[in-house]
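Quick question: what would this complex look like in 3D?
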Amino acid sequence: MANDTQQVLTAHTGQPAVFEEARDPVTRRAFIKSVIATGAVASTGGLMLTGLSGCSDDATPAAGSVERLVTLNINGKSRPVDVLPNESLAMTLRYKLGLTGTKLACDRGECGACTVLIDDVTHNSCSTLTHSVRGREVTTVEGLEQPDGALHPVQQAMIDELGPQCGFCTPGQVMSGVALLKNNPSPTREEVREGMAGNLCRCGAYDHYLNSIMRAARVS
Amino acid sequence: MSTKDVMPQFALFQPTDIENALDLLEKYGERGWKVAGGQDSYDWFKDRAKRPEAVIDLGGIAELSGIRETAEGVEIGAMTTLTEIVENTIISGSYGVLAQAASRVASPQIRNAGTLGGNLNQDARCWYYRSGLDCYRAGGNTCYADTPEGMNREHCLFGASRCVAVTPSDTAAAIVALDAEMVIHGPAGERIVPAQEFFIGPAVNITRMTVVEPSELLVAVRIPSKWAGANFYFEKVADRNTWDFPLVNVASSMIVKDGIVEDIRIVCSGVECVPKRIEGAEQIAIGSAPDAETADLAGGTASRGATPLNYNHFKIPLMENLVKRAIRGEA
């Protein structure tokens, strides 16, 4: 863990050399995977410091402003991480902690793809400041499976009911489904419809998602 | 327009008490920005349409949250989330119009983070203004919406004064219909403002939607027990059931004795920069039975004085019909 912290600092103070790698003829997916494999935080320097006017690192922080080095509770683990004051939780999860199951789509709270649980309640992580979740429990889609690798009933039901079509919105749909069933273990179809209303699906697989949540409610 | 980068840099403060927050607000003034749930604020920052130097996150101030019964009614902390309001049994039991309005805001995720204070204080949704153009509201000298080519389907019917934006808040109509009082703290101490005077139009101050000064903080909303258990009606018409702001909404509170309307408040959002009390219709309804005949008579007057723009004539019959439904108490 101490090692992680060290790497963050290096990434922020160093030049974004890592970003050059991204321009190589390596697929984006392969690149991101390699970065995650070698320590998630290495990607941060490139992704977050390039082309972001007003985001440079050298300004002196205002007195009394937040400390940047924080420890977050993500999926039951303590994760020390260097967080900018203006950083969204989705950015921290994806680009600093390598938790790319959380998707970023609209980045404006208008689609639900980035839905995570904060203290068991759904939030759009694109519209949450990372500094506001200190001391709170964050659960992402990566945190749902059991220690033995068994999927969460909502995840399993998504497979059994062929819930997703392209799958991009699925992590967000799963998180909304999980939160809904925690609150209301045997919902009506209409209640599921309302509970899942904050997650857009461009494939239009809404009925399949509804079937999935109804199945998860029956089996869990 | 939507890009995936971080917000521009700002200093972030997370005070844990009101005093500390007020000190910061006084220190930074116009250069500071209050964040409640942040569901609107972060979009402004991401779009570079607002660039505060310091952001004051009110989320850590415990005394700003919660719903308390008092001798005079109920007091709702400004940082109480919309979901908490929807699920609260005092609100849904006695002041249902507010629970209904809160339940129709945006999406479940946004209601989980969004607060009553934030929803009431939110800025205008005019997209010309939102896109960072130098319109009157942004300090310039043009309105892009009120032009022959301007897209103004969502804009106002009443109270235009250079700016034609409307209040987008669902809860605003409800708290005006409940005669709520707004508790505001500032450098000079506490002041209490009636909900109806809390919202201000462009003729009063074109750069703000409420009376809250940059150095002040909305602390709580007090709802008097006068309307507890009254006959309530709330209906929102929007393009989609989730996310969208109201084209027009109506909130009403009605006290009926012996089949006769004794007192009533009818309020619409989406037609003026402030929640609009439909006082003409209220006066017609008082003293009559809340039936279809009264509804038609009163509702027909609801849009009196409207000055529609090119694309929003549809709001006239829409608000008239909503007012009729509010008086009839059914869709």
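Answer marked as accepted. Chain A touches chain B through 42 residues (CB under 8 Å).
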